[in-house]
From TrEMBL:
InterPro entries: Cupin_8 (IPR041667), F-box-like_dom_sf (IPR036047), F-box_dom (IPR001810), JmjC_dom (IPR003347), JMJD6_ArgDemeth/LysHydrox (IPR050910). One of its GO terms (cellular component) is nucleus. This is Uncharacterized protein. Residues 442-490 are annotated as: Disordered. It holds the Pfam family Cupin_8. Residues 248-410 form the JmjC domain. PANTHER family: ARGININE DEMETHYLASE AND LYSYL-HYDROXYLASE JMJD, JMJC DOMAIN-CONTAINING PROTEIN 8. It comes from Penicillium angulare. Residues 442-467 have a biased composition (Basic and acidic residues). PROSITE patterns: FBOX, JMJC.
């Protein structure tokens, strides 16, 4: 019987000769729920009263069990065996109490239980029909190609060889772009591969989400995992761990890399060691990446790809703009909810996002560097195993935005060491001694913005002087948000 599905997003699991990209069969044979409609038997009938509960709730309840109990309940019937093989259950157990030393064994379950692949039983659960179990497997195997190709011309992120600081400040500080030249000069571009890093730094521990793993263990993970959302190495202390020198090659002859000239000005440097986290080494397998977010503290960023291309999809933000499709933001913008994994977002929202005004997309290839302007939403997915370095900075054009963020969104400020209190005041003090003129300009601009906002609010509430009765009553509907522009103050 062919596989059918109730969910339009799930491709049918078909043979390659049928001309559709094949998703391999689930290792236990579990099929999407829709197949139950025509099935003659269903393993779920063996779970007794649990049948009253949806699969998602069963998995949620299983999250409260420890490893021994999961194994126990998994022995009661094939259906529960399949449920207890859900990788997220074992990942959570592993991450909540990581052992000091372990061997990565291809899955979180096998790693937690220290089971060699030969000891994992092949149980046939082909009469179990469950979207909750099939979905993560499906998402772990989707082909990225349809999403990262055929980028509409209007969406394409511009690509340039290089930019001078003046060109950047005058024309490009608010726009995403890719530079193809500067990174090709970096020693880390010439020398780093996953292999060379493993041989040089294998025992060194790096941060990967909630765990610190020896790089060689992370290398084993990269080479052999089937996660829907692969663990992503994102380490902010790599420069010291790896003993790197960073700086312009004229001043630092043994420099491993240096920011391109157009990104060199960075006003957070006035805080020297008290600046917030600003540089990361990023390593991940194919399909790893970053869900939609804006970078911290209203900073801009560059992201240099050393190995493995990255697909970027980006949107501008602003008071009059909605967040990207599939992303939800609280009223004060302090909480961003992006509930879907990258794969599920691609399946569900990519087509709509591509049609949405403001969308920019591009592939940053090996040896290229991409600019993320302050305040832009971005989602990134690695098309192949990837190594990148990213750095956040405050350019001249976004000094006001950074001051605004530090002073008016103090509760959302992040990345500072615990002992750095009142980052806003520290930043103002630092700017006052290093760049008093620029600080004054930015503060004046901020002041104007605040007054403009107040005026706009007063206009809306009380009507503009000279407004007719009719305009006054209708004012609210076109006061905010309808003109598609991002300019807060006329
Ligand atoms: O390379 C990536 O996954 C993107 C990283 C990123 O967005 C960030 O560092 O803010
Ligand atoms: Fe980012």
């Amino acid at each position: 019987m062919p596989d059918i599905t109730t969910l339009p997003n799930y491709p049918l699991a078909q043979d390659e000769d049928q001309g559709v990209e094949a998703i391999p069969s689930h290792p236990l044979g579990v099929k999407p729920s829709g197949n139950a409609l025509l099935a003659t038997s269903n393993l779920r009938s063996a779970i007794g009263t649990w049948q009253l509960l949806p699969d998602e709730l069963i998995l949620l309840i299983f999250e409260y069990l420890n490893g021994r109990d999961l194994l126990g309940i998994g022995r009661t019937c094939k259906a529960f065996y399949a449920f207890t093989r859900a990788e997220d259950l074992w990942k959570t157990l592993f991450v909540s109490s990581p052992p000091d030393s372990f061997t990565w064994r291809g899955t979180w379950r096998s790693t937690y239980l220290n089971l060699p692949a030969t000891k994992v039983p092949q149980v046939d659960c082909s009469n179990l029909y469950s979207d909750a179990l099939y979905r993560p497997f499906n998402c772990a195997h989707i082909k990225l190609e349809p999403y990262v190709s055929n980028i509409p011309k209007r969406n394409q992120i511009p690509r340039l060889p290089d930019l001078s600081p003046e060109e950047f400040h005058e024309k490009w500080a608010d726009r995403p772009f890719i530079l193809s030249d500067p990174v090709k000069e970096w020693p880390v571009y010439k020398n780093w591969t996953v292999g060379t890093l493993l041989s040089k730094y294998g025992p060194e521990k790096f941060r990967a989400e909630a765990v610190d793993w020896a790089l060689r263990t992370y290398g084993d993970y990269m080479a052999d995992n089937a996660d829907e959302s692969p663990l992503y190495l994102f380490d902010r202390n790599f420069v010291s761990k790896m003993g790197l020198a960073v700086g312009s090659p004229t001043e630092t002859p043994d420099a491993a890399y240096w920011p391109p000239a157009c990104f060199a000005e960075d006003f957070f440097s006035v805080l020297s060691d008290n600046r917030p986290d600003h540089q990361w080494l990023i390593v991940g397998p194919e399909r790893s990446g970053s869900k939609f977010h804006k970078d911290p503290n209203a900073t801009s960023a560059w992201n240099a790809v050393l190995r493995g291309p990255k697909y970027w999809i980006m949107f501008p933000s602003g008071e009059t703009r909605d967040p990207p499709p599939g992303v939800f933001v609280s009223d004060d913008q302090s909480e961003v909810t992006s509930p879907l994994s990258i794969a599920e977002w691609l399946l569900t929202f990519h087509a709509e996002a591509r049609r949405t005004a403001g969308c920019m997309e591009g592939i940053c290839e090996e040896g290229e560097i991409l600019h993320v302007p302050s305040g832009w939403w971005h989602l990134v997915v690695n098309i192949e195993p990837s190594i990148a370095i990213t750095q956040n900075f405050i350019p001249r054009a976004h000094l006001t935005a950074a001051l605004d963020f530090l002073s008016n969104k103090a509760d959302q400020v992040s990345g500072f060491k615990k002992n750095v209190n009142d980052p806003y005041q520290r930043f103002v003090d630092g700017m006052q001694s290093a760049h008093p003129e620029l600080l004054k300009e930015a503060q004046e601009e901020l002041q104007k913005k605040a007054e403009g906002k107040k005026r706009k609010w007063d206009d809306i509430v009380h009507g503009k002087p000279g407004d007719s009765e009719e305009q006054e009553t209708g004012g609210f509907s076109f006061g905010f948000g309808d003109d598609g522009s991002d300019v807060e103050v006329p």
